[in-house]
Amino acid sequence: MSNTPYRTALVTGASSGIGAAIVRRLSESGIEVHALARDAKRLETLASETGCIPHAVSVSDQAGLEALIAGLEVDVLINNAGQSRTGNITKTTPEDIDALVDVNLRAVLQLTRLVVPGMIERDRGHIVNISSIAGHYAFTGGNTVYHATKAGVHSLSQQLRCDLFGRHIRVTEVSPARVETEVFGRLIGDMAEAKKRFFDEYESLLPEDIANSVAFAVLAPQRMNVSFMEVLPTMQVVGGLNFAKKTSDPA
């Protein structure tokens, strides 16, 4: 059992990858974890393994989210659900933009809006936003809309600390680099190929690494707020400059 004052947690995108790992880790700490995702079958398996309470609801289902929160006292909200796409802005469809904004940013805003009043009333709570290094750095090959939504999550995390100043409500942003999850398989339509292309020859993070990072922040003493955590593989760096050769004399 944990000494944390938190009793309940809600984890989105909980059926696999980082979300499922967070559910396992927080359940081990003695917190009652509510696991939210679309895949009911995977949630049932996770529930039998961890004792979590499954909720087969899409983060895009506003009515479903409101119904869930109305009957639930959330001490810890883990905004983890996310989607990505390949290609830059010139290869992005209107449907891609809507899906990424809806899941990566709109759902985070809506869930936060729904749970914060209860946290304020109890003067107890913790919001953890899983963002990405894509929200802080520009790099060739990244999806423009994905980068923009994750930058929005970063800005939300910063502003929330101002909104909640003077209360015992913490806000943490965890910003991972490459993590070995099914997301890469969905991006290219073949998990075996994704494993070969992105992971076999590289040292990447595992979902458990991010779950342990989240647990460190959530289980830290109440006097301490881990406001921002950037988590990278040891063998990866971010940043750098690119220069294109001249193609003609400047006008």
What does this structure look like?
With 251 residues, this protein is of the alpha/beta class. It is built from 8 helices and 7 strands. It has a 7-stranded parallel sheet, sandwiched between helices. Helix 1 crosses helix 8. It is globular and about 65 Å long. Belongs to the short-chain dehydrogenases/reductases (SDR) family. Keywords: Oxidoreductase. This is SDR family oxidoreductase.
Summarize the structure.
The chain is built from 8 helices and 7 strands. The protein has 251 residues and is of the alpha/beta class.
The biggest sheet amounts to: 7 strands, parallel
Q: How many beta-strand elements?
A: 7
Give the DSSP E fraction (strand runs of 2 or more residues).
5-15%
Identify low-pLDDT runs. Answer: none
By DSSP (H or I, 4+ residues per run), the number of helices equals: 8
Query: What is the overall shape?
Result: globular
Q: Can you list the strand order of the major beta sheet?
A: 3-2-1-4-5-6-7
Element string (H = helix, E = strand): EHEHEHEHEHEHHHE
Radius of gyration: 19 Å
Percentage of residues in helical conformation: 40-55%
Question: What is the element layout, followed by pairings?
Answer:
Layout: E1 8-12, H1 17-28, E2 32-37, H2 40-50, E3 53-56, H3 62-70, E4 76-79, H4 94-122, E5 125-130, H5 144-163, E6 169-176, H6 183-188, H7 191-199, H8 207-218, E7 228-231
Parallel strand pairs: 1-2, 1-4, 2-3, 4-5, 5-6, 6-7
Helix pairs in contact: 1-8, 3-4, 4-5
